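Reply to dn_fold:

You asked what the input looked like. This is it:
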Amino acid sequence: MEVSHPHYDRLIAAARHAGPVTVAVAHPCDRNALEGALDAAKIGIIKPILVGPRERIRQAAEAARLDISALPLIDTEHSHASAAKAVELVRAGQASALMKGSLHTDELMGAVVDTATGLRTARRLSHCFVMDVPGRAEPLIITDAAVNIIPTLNDKVDIVQNAIDLARVLRFDPVKVAILAAVETVSAKMPSTIDAAALCKMADRGQITGALIDGPLAMDNAIDPEAAAIKHLVSPVAGQANVLVAPDLEAGNMLAKSLTFMAGASAAGIVLGARVPVILTSRADTVQARLASCAVAVLVAHSAGG
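and this is what came back:
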């Protein structure tokens, strides 16, 4: 049975209302990558520029019976060149977002973070899943589940701020950030709890802004009011978080995929912290999840004046 995801419907509607942005699609040489770009173009949220080997893209489109004749196509030799050219289009002001095609994520991100020719800013890059979880009254952001493997405290400052900025673009009101750990008390034996306490104090001092932040919080008392009450947690975040910050990539990835494959959730993925949003989709994504990933990027690009 297919699960409906009304939060994604609202995000897609908001992106359509904001108007399409031009997206450089890096190396779309298979059906999934081409369909993702075409589906978003058909509903009017992006204007794709296909960047990759012309003949491979045409053959993939022909095999999948997809009509790409109306889309601009920039010919490149291979996947590394596709990533570099897509980034170059952004640097030249010809695209306001990037979209991963059928190349490896590492290849695309390598071009994005290149010191001389990439799209780095002072902010560290991080990944956010915008989850539509059945039964929840609003979307849920989980970070970082795809880019920063074992983030330091300094990394986590940017990871948290990137997520807050995204939540504000998506009009979470207020933004409530839970810094996750296995327990809700600070323990010298668990470094993630010390990081959580430090991040909360940094927020108190204005080093992280735009949200209510609390941690360490275990998963149950971050999202379940009854669990928070049982633990006697007095907090504006406990039991009602809408942004979950995982202690490391493995925990974040397992959390997001558990919600997807065991709770009927859907996950839209985006990388933040570069000059423009980067749309990351998975082969396992539904059409709606791919469209939602594009919609989130469109809203972020518009918020940045893209």
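The mean pLDDT is 95.
Hope that clears it up.
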